[in-house]
Specification:
Layout lengths: L6 E7 L4 E3 L12 H14 L7 E5 H10 L10 E3 L2 E6 H12 L1 E5 L11 E4 L4 H9 L5 E4 L2 H9 L5 E6 L8 E2 L10 E8 L5 E7 L2
Parallel strand pairs: 1-8, 1-9, 3-6, 3-8, 6-7
Antiparallel strand pairs: 2-10, 4-5, 9-12, 11-12
Helix pairs in contact: 1-3
Length: 208
């Protein structure tokens, strides 16, 4: 069965290769309104496609999102930015709407239930189940954060595109996004775009 959907991982990473501080915090992410507008435009374009957005989460990232995004929608045309306290924007509201409405699949061996709207709990990453999910009609599947899930899917060559926003700073320590890959995985560069903030967007596809 030929897959009809891709799995895309999107993550901010530091110049020395970490996607979060050791405690999981993301307050180091460099503010970038131009990048936010680009992401919001992609979300708006995606609304025209058939099917629901589907997101994959590991437990830690899900709990971070669960604590913030369900409360980020109100009567205001803007929503707060989780990376920068006190900052709010229309682009963050577009993100909040998408995250709350999307189907969320959460991989966790310790959680007994998930209560955030449109969430479903799975206890392990089963490659056959993921392949079946990709074969279903619909939009591309996204992963934010969730290093353990990204690592497992990378090991099984199930991620089709890696999108990294490389920030202009060195954290010195933290959590690596991808670990445990037993051999080299060849990637093809799709896009490299520098922003005035110093952030650089890199898009790679898994080489066929």
């Amino acid at each position: 069965m030929k897959p009809t959907r891709r799995i895309i991982t999107f993550n901010h990473v530091s110049a020395d290769g970490y996607f979060s501080r050791p405690d999981g915090s993301l307050n180091w992410v460099v503010q970038d309104p131009e990048l936010d507008r680009s992401v919001a435009t992609t979300i708006e374009q995606s609304k025209r496609d058939e099917g629901n957005d589907t997101l994959l989460f590991g437990r830690r990232t899900y709990e971070q999102f669960e604590a913030f995004w369900p409360h980020a929608l109100g009567d205001s045309p803007t929503s707060p930015d989780p990376h920068h306290a006190g900052r709010s924007s229309p682009e963050m509201r577009a993100m909040a709407v998408m995250l709350n409405e999307a189907t969320k699949l959460v991989f966790s061996r310790t959680r007994q239930e998930v209560t955030w709207k449109n969430s479903r709990l799975l206890h392990e990453v089963n490659p056959r189940e993921i392949e079946a999910l990709k074969a279903q009609p619909g939009k591309d599947i996204m992963i934010f954060g969730s290093g353990s899930v990204v690592s497992q899917l990378t090991q099984h060559e199930l991620i089709d595109e890696y999108q990294f926003i490389v920030g202009p700073l060195v954290l010195g320590s933290g959590r690596q996004l991808i670990t445990g890959v037993p051999q080299n995985l060849k990637l093809d560069l799709l896009e490299a775009k520098a922003y005035a903030s110093g952030n650089v967007k890199l898009r790679y596809a898994r080489s066929s």
